[in-house]
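Table 4 source record.
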Amino acid sequence: MKRLILALLTGAAFAASSPVYAAVKTIVLVHGSLTRTLSKSMAITAFVSIACGGIACAQTAAPPPTVTVAPVVSRQITETGAYIGRVTAIDKVDIVARISGFIEQRNFVEGQQVKKGDLLFRIEQDTYKAAVDQQRANLEKAKATAVNTKLQLERGKELVRNSNIPQSTLDQRAADDAAAQASIMEAQALLEQAQINLGYTEIRSPIDGRIGLATFTEGNLVQPSSGRLATIVSQDPIYVTFQVSERNVIEYRQRVAQSADKDPHVTIHIKLPNGTDYPLPGLTNFLDVQVDPTTDTVTVRAKVPNPNGVLIAGGVIGVTTERGAPHSALMVPQSAVLLDQAGRYVLVVDSAKKVEQRRITTGVEQGRDIVVTDGLKEGELVIVEGVQKVRPGQIVTASVMPGK
């Protein structure tokens, strides 16, 4: 064993200053009974362990982890708010029958565009034409009766002056003449009502819009109690309604009050259900007068152009509102923002390549970036890739994200 150790000490493999040399030398200087007690295998094991430890000490430290960073940038942004909205028609009319009769014609194709005044349904007219003729005859009869009563009244006046009839007879003739005039008015009103009913046999569109499914077809008997025959909704422009929190309404009113522009209307942009952006912006024109107590929100309505009928009444869409004029704001990629129980933070790499944890306050999202309102300065570098490999206080190798 001694010869083995001496051979290692005197071998060319170890320099006098080597850690391994010092370790082996220590073994030699240990009390002589060590070599007698240890077996050859145990001595070799102890030597290998010490030698490996010495070699590890001789090795260089591991390289610092590599991370990707992005600078904090300042951009001009317009703050926005995102909501869920619903499309509603400005005008919606349920077409109903106002008289009873069989449908003779249906003059539209379901789903087509119709104009105000277009004929939609025609109900059989014969009965109503006959009623008009009858009331016209009654009117003429009443007029003839009135002519006779007027003549009798004038004749009675002459006879009373000559004392040929009593005054009571003249009074009766005056009453008969007044009744005849009233009969004319009554007959005239009945004639007008008959003409109105005849007009109701032709059901025309009261608005411009798109007509839906027909509930009744030709040959069906309809009456006022039959309900809706079809529905027409206006298409262009159209309304979009959405719910805004009371807090947002108050904040917006305060910004308007402090701004030189006192226009209370807000521009909105729409995202369609398929994820695409609707090209035409809208403008708010109504804010409800009360807060919904169940949701603490206020209904806002906007008017949006819809020349091609892309927006369909009743549909659900995304609504983005612009909150005030553009202003400068600090922004970082959303991938840099981390969250724990204490709130949001980022990992910053300083000029000495050391990692620092920084608590931040965030604002609205802008695509893949997010606004930072407090906690960072423009130009500072935040880690966007490799955050799981580092900890605060650690030295890192940083590379800037392409395009930043």
